[in-house]
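FIELD: query
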Amino acid sequence: MKTEIAFQKTVKTVEELLEITGKPSELVNNKVISYLDEHCLGFISQSPFLTISTADETGFCDVSPRGDEKGFVHVMNEKQLIIPERPGNKRMDSMRNILSNPNIGLLFLIPGLGETLRINGKASVIRDEELLEKMAVNGKRPILGIGVDVEECFIHCAKAFRRSELWNPETWMTKEELPKGAKILAAHAKLTNVDEEAVGKLLEKSYREKLY
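FIELD: result
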């Protein structure tokens, strides 16, 4: 791999950016709302997967996935929702960030649908047992939740999904062609006597026994 070099030609101002890209249409400018209307509620109720974008107090960013049965995100009202925190790797990257910087961005996906729902707002870490009990699965209440006070909601167009053909099974790689998560994790962690096979067994055990 080549040695890292500095990017030479970069955009410095918003004015320069708009000169290159052009300005958004009236439709795009007007599509943002500040609450969860019936369309947003319907989208969330059909979504089994979302990504969470957070940043720490220095601005260092992180994006993390969340997934469950469709409609797993609990909507409290038109301005608030809660994302259940299921068992994971205990790094708690998103929650650590939220504790120092409450700004959050969500991207909701529905399999087969190109359009996505974007929600931005302020987040907090929820430990209210009564609220979390409403999101229990198999009798197991989530250990914590991410509460979001909604500030922006809008639909994002399907161009990225059209270009990538993400939902087209004909473009999917075979199982043999796919990157192997266990191999990558073993290579990155570099633990003594822990190879790809050992990591694979640990992952499968976790997937089998610790989803909830």
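FIELD: remark
Residues 86 and 212 are 6 Å apart (CA to CA).
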